[in-house]
Design brief:
heterodimer; A: alpha+beta; B: four-stranded antiparallel beta sheet
């Protein structure tokens, strides 16, 4: 009995232990199976998340990249607009040379202040960018809307909107622009629409495009927008240039009307000091009212000549002096700088936005028909070209003594120790008003004898 | 009493011992099968997956709104892709700035590339574990098949060698294994290293391509730890962002492990 009890007990204990171990093993196996299944399902879920993440992130990142594309494009169009003087002389061809905002043709009469019917002439265009063809001076006068038009034309016609489309494989993602806008070349541009706004201290642009981004079975179709702000005083620079043009017109009119301040007076030391005065006035006009944060620099070239056939519509031939200036004004921003794409050099270079424009005029400096001023009896009036009394106005004609005045008829140019001759008709007219006296050219200039 | 019951007890104890041994062996094989062969890499992969997949996108998102130097990163990238040169784009400092940027986020292994019409024109490489005069090698505990030792230029630990991937140079050395390419040409059948109680792996800073085509003394397919290979084996994810300007097409690629 005892041994039976003993053996049954041993078998039972062993069998129980084995059963427990088998149960433990089963649970362990089930646990491992579940863990493995969980890992597999987690991986599958993560793979799906990864696909969604890739689609979503590629879309968002591409839109962010596109914002920078539009920023660079807007900046380049602003650079071009400033560098090309808002298109003056380019899209106003046959009126002005490129870059000119003001140009007077010396072979045509300067426009009067009124037309034949006595009505004021629209010398500065009221709404258009340039005045009517044939006006003298020809003027380019771009307003804000013209600046915006030019910016828009640059964006559309210089390939800024013609982006690569479609992009078939961006890391496995396909991207395309839909519903693009027709640009001036006739191609379908990437952008659906864009708006430009010109403010005092910035140019704002808003680009809108329709994007389709596809990855696997996932797809995003969306209309996105990018708002760009480029800090620039372009608007104020253009306004300052417009004002300068209006004042240059007034300066030219003043010369035409023999305004004393602008005339070559008998007391002027020489031609150089007179030209210096003209240069100062032009410089003051070009650099006035320049906005803060903008540096104005000028390059003003002047010259003077006797009126001849080349400038006979400024002052009749032989009857006086004509002063000519060609001025280039450059407004340069000092606070803002962006990267300029130099296509020829294949570089992006940091530089400020600039506006450059040119003005050129031929103006009466000395009209001998105005000199001498009413006097009884009339007497010649002496002027200083290079030295004292080396030039006179007599009976409406200009004479020089021992000095070379460009453009002056040799018949009106005397050398030292010569005097006026009746045989030379211009000199004879002068002699006629001298009541028996004559003008002699001496080493000290003209002397009445 | 005890003496009488002893023969049966010994029998049962032996049976129990055999069962226990069998169970220990089974548990050991289950462990080998689940964790060493497949489970450990997959479970680790599963845990790291979200980080691996997310990190490049998160970093690129931050880059999209980051100004390095005097311009936004994307702006510089577009200009580099357009001109085909960081110097021409006035962005010669960008690689260095990107390296400083990545340090801030504690990213040790990355590769940032700017391509213009599929040609790389700029890159910023973490050069982690790289060595040699031009970072052409990797610090490793063993050069193994397909690699030759070069001067580490002071970049490796004293117990490491600087190993450069160069199948031709390796083939010309003595006492070598034959060079057998594997993994679609990415790797070389290698000897690898076999730590105690662990499965065979590639030498340090080499990638196990995971193919089963290698046998014999060189049973493991090992490839250089390049950006492309890291992506191919799923250790890294590459983010691609198009860079457009006029009709120029470029791409910014950010790979992060």
């Amino acid at each position: 009995m005892k041994s039976t009890t003993c053996c049954s007990k041993g078998v039972g204990t062993t069998a129980g232990t084995i059963m427990l171990m088998i149960i433990f093993l089963i649970f362990f196996g089930v646990y491992l199976y579940m863990v493995n299944n969980h890992v597999q399902s987690t991986i599958e879920l993560n793979l799906e998340s990864s696909q969604i993440l890739k689609l979503k992130s590629t879309f968002a990142l591409f839109n962010a990249s596109l914002g920078n594309t539009w920023l660079i494009s807007t900046v380049q169009s602003i650079f071009m607009t400033g560098d090309e003087s808002i298109g003056c002389g380019i899209d106003t061809s046959n009126r002005l040379p490129a870059g000119y905002w003001y140009w007077r043709d010396p072979n045509q009469d300067r426009d009067g202040l009124t037309d034949a019917q006595g009505r004021p002439i629209e010398r500065i265009p009221a709404t258009n960018k340039g005045n009517v063809w044939g006006r003298n001076p020809q003027i380019c006068y771009p307003r804000d809307n013209h600046v915006l038009d030019y910016l828009q034309a640059k964006l559309e016609c210089e390939d800024f909107l013609s982006l690569k489309n479609p992009m078939d494989n961006v890391g496995g993602v396909a991207i395309s622009f839909n519903s693009g806008r027709n640009v001036c070349s006739g191609n379908n541009g990437a952008v659906a629409s864009f708006l430009l706004d010109l403010n005092d201290d910035n140019v704002e642009s808003k680009f809108s495009q329709s994007l389709a981004v596809v990855y696997g079975d996932g797809r995003i179709d969306a209309q996105t927008e990018n708002n760009i702000k480029v800090m620039t005083s372009l608007r104020q620079m253009v306004a300052a240039a417009r004002e300068a043009v209006a004042n240059l017109l007034i300066l030219g009119d003043a010369h035409e009307q023999h305004y004393p301040v602008t005339q070559y007076l008998p007391g002027a030391p020489d031609k150089d000091s007179y030209q210096s005065g003209v240069k100062s006035r032009v410089d003051a006009i070009l650099t006035a009212r320049v906005p803060s944060g903008v540096l104005a620099t000028t390059d003003i070239q002047t010259d003077m000549r006797a009126a001849d056939n080349s400038v006979s519509n400024v002052v009749p031939t032989g009857l006086g002096l004509v002063v000519h200036y060609k001025a280039t004004a450059t407004y340069t921003e000092t606070n803002n700088a962006y990267y300029y794409n130099n296509g020829a050099a294949n570089t992006f270079v940091k530089r400020p936005i600039k506006l450059e424009y040119i003005a050129e005029d031929y103006m009466p400096a000395l009209d001998c028909t105005e000199w001498p001023k009413p006097a009884n009896p009339p007497r010649p009036t002496a002027f200083n070209w290079q030295s004292t009394n080396d030039m006179v106005c007599c009976a409406g004609y200009l004479f020089s003594c021992n000095v070379n005045i460009p453009g002056l008829d040799p018949a009106q140019a005397l050398t030292v120790n010569t005097r006026l001759q009746n045989s030379i008709w211009q000199q004879g007219i002068c002699i006629d008003i001298l009541s028996g006296a004559t003008l002699s050219c001496t080493p000290n200039g003209f002397e009445l004898s | 009493m005890k003496g009488l019951s002893m023969p049966e007890d010994i029998g049962m104890t032996l049976i129990l011992l055999v069962v226990v041994i069998m169970m220990v062996v089974m548990v050991f094989f289950i462990y080998i099968e689940v964790f060493l062969k497949m489970g450990s890499s997959q479970s680790a992969y599963s845990i790291a997956f979200v980080s691996i997949a997310n990190k490049p996108y998160l970093i690129t998102e931050v880059l999209a709104h980051t100004k390095l130097g005097d311009r936004q990163v994307f702006e510089q990238a577009i200009e580099i892709a357009t001109t085909g040169s960081a110097q021409n784009a006035g962005a010669a400092d960008l690689p260095e700035n990107l390296t400083d940027f990545m340090k801030v986020y504690g990213t040790r292994e990355y590769y940032i590339s700017i391509k213009s019409n599929d040609m790389e024109v700029m890159n910023a490489d973490s050069n982690e574990y790289k060595c040699g005069a031009d970072n052409e090698g990797w610090c490793s505990n063993k050069c193994d098949v397909g690699r030759v030792e070069i001067n580490d230029n002071g970049n490796c630990w004293f117990w490491q060698s600087c190993c450069k991937e160069d199948k031709v140079a390796y083939a010309s050395t003595v006492n070598n294994y034959p060079v057998v390419t594997c993994g679609g040409g990415r790797g070389v059948c290698s000897e690898g290293v076999k730590p105690l109680f662990q499965r065979r792996t590639c030498a340090q800073n080499r990638l196990d391509i995971g193919t089963q085509e290698c046998t014999g003394a060189t049973p493991i397919c090992c490839a250089p730890k390049t950006e492309e290979n890291q992506i191919a084996v799923g250790n890294a994810v590459k983010v691609s962002v198009p860079l457009l300007y006029k009709l120029n097409y470029g791409i910014l690629e950010v790979s992060v492990k």
